[in-house]
Design a protein that fits this description.
Elements lengths: L5 E5 L2 H4 L7 H6 L16 H15 L3 E5 L2 H4 L8 H16 L3 E7 L5 H5 L8 H15 L7 E5 L4 H13 L13 H8 L2 H9 L13 H21 L4 E7 L2 E4 L4 H11 L4 H4 L4 E5 L3 E5 L2 E2 L19 H10 L5 E6 L7 H20 L4 E7 L18 E4 L4 E4 L1 H7 L4
Parallel strand pairs: 1-2, 1-11, 2-3, 3-4, 4-5, 5-7, 6-8, 7-10, 10-11
Antiparallel strand pairs: 8-9, 12-13
Helix pairs in contact: 7-11, 8-9, 14-15, 15-16
């Protein structure tokens, strides 16, 4: 297997493709209680522009691209698979290979088929088997595609993180942030009014989408779905590395905050060690740090630089989290997401420079870090925050669907030259 160090970018289908009309997210975008600032619409039209976008990656010097296969496109109705949509994603894989780009495939990046939610979603005991069936269908089609990396589930801990922060909000306590564009205050406010609309749209009172506040049982469902997916991948694609990604921050503490920081690391990462023990790699998704006192997580200080997302500008998190994860997980490591939402591309370049310094130092010291994938390739639809967050190495003219590289794209690619 080619062990070239991967330097590339990442996207999620739900955020860049547009018009994923059979998905749960698409349905929620148009609900009064869905919590979305604006619908995704055509997004970046990546469904049609992927070949030109992959060419831009190649011309800039990138050698890897992480993107998602969309379950809602491939299995739009329960048990009915679309060969046409599967071939679309195979074409994306082929385009990557043609341009010398390593495809890193994510099988589930939050968005799911609408029918899955009607069946109980991510609180239902049937979901792991449904997911495994989908994974098997995909893997059978990937047999001859020379795939080296598959992320089963993106940020498997997101539902439990959201549950924790919603609980804080309901208790009117401060402190903390999520590495995702979710409007938690609005979610908390609307949750009590959502039952009737959920019944109308999904046929259930509680729509257990992947980013819903998750129960302990729901967390077990997600973990089991991952394990089943890894078994399928190892059986059908024995040369492919399978792994999970989690949202993890660089957890730090003041003099009396170590216990609280350790509790958060247990919740965010150590809790999942039994789930990933048979994995080939772990996907690190980190953007910032969190500082804990004896009273809990602190808000960023008033004089601290923050990103458009509202959390602290802290690119050092990349190297720090690699070291922390390696203490407990000895398999390969891959930064599957790290980046900054900013309108200042020079600030983006400096963020990448500092993050890469930490990553490459870990590599030089012999830690099993295999690559860095910046989030995101293009300015996209950032979930409930809509189009207001600018993470991209490429700018998006939504009216004309023109994709224009920013200087940061070539800067990231320069690490391969």
């Amino acid at each position: 297997m080619n062990e070239t160090f991967l330097i590339g970018s990442a996207t999620a289908g739900g955020q860049v493709e547009g018009n994923n009309i059979n998905s749960d997210t698409w349905a929620q975008e148009y609900m009064k209680t869905g919590g979305y600032k604006e619908p995704s619409g055509n997004a970046a039209d990546h469904y049609h522009t992927y070949r030109d976008d992959i060419r831009l990656m190649h011309e800039a010097g990138l050698n890897a691209y992480r993107f998602s296969f969309e379950w809602a496109r491939i299995e739009p109705e329960k048990g009915k698979f679309s060969e046409e949509e599967m071939n679309h994603y195979l074409d994306m894989v082929d385009a990557c290979h043609e341009y010398g780009i390593e495809p890193v495939i994510t099988l589930l990046h939050f968005v799911c088929p609408k029918w899955l939610i009607t069946e109980g979603g991510w609180e239902a005991d049937t979901t792991p088997d449904y997911f495994a069936r989908y994974v098997e269908y995909v893997c059978e089609h990937l047999r001859d595609r020379n795939i080296h990396w598959i992320v089963t589930i993106n940020e498997a801990n997101m539902g439990t993180l959201i549950a924790g922060y919603l609980e804080k909000i309901m208790k009117h306590t401060e402190g903390g942030s999520l590495q995702i564009g979710m409007d938690l205050e609005k979610m908390a406010e609307q949750e009590k009014f959502a039952k009737e609309e959920n019944l109308k749209v999904f046929g259930v009172e509680q729509a257990a989408v992947f980013t819903s506040p998750r129960s302990a049982h729901g967390d077990e469902i997600v973990c089991l779905a991952h394990k089943k997916a890894v078994e399928v991948i190892h059986r059908i694609l024995p040369g492919t590395k399978a792994g999970l990604s989690l949202s993890v921050r660089d957890l730090q503490y003041t003099d009396n905050g170590k216990e609280n920081a350790d509790k958060d690391w247990e919740k965010d990462f150590l809790h999942y060690l039994p789930t990933i023990e048979n994995d080939d790699f772990f996907g690190i998704q980190t953007y910032t740090r969190a500082i804990f006192s004896k009273d809990g997580e602190l808000d960023p200080a008033s004089d601290v630089k923050v990103t458009q997302m509202g959390y602290e500008y802290y690119p050092e998190c990349a190297g720090h989290v690699i070291r922390r994860v390696h203490e407990s997980f000895k398999g390969d490591l891959l930064i599957t997401e790290n980046g900054i939402a900013t309108s200042d591309d020079q600030e983006r370049i400096e963020y990448i420079r500092t993050a890469m310094e930490g990553v490459m130092k870990c590599k030089e010291e012999g830690l099993p870090i295999k690559g860095y994938l910046y989030w995101s390739f293009i300015d996209n639809w950032e979930w409930q925050s809509g189009y207001s967050m600018q993470f991209g190495l490429v700018s998006l003219d939504r009216e004309n669907q023109i994709h224009t590289p920013k200087p940061s794209l070539a800067f990231l690619g320069s690490y391969n030259r």
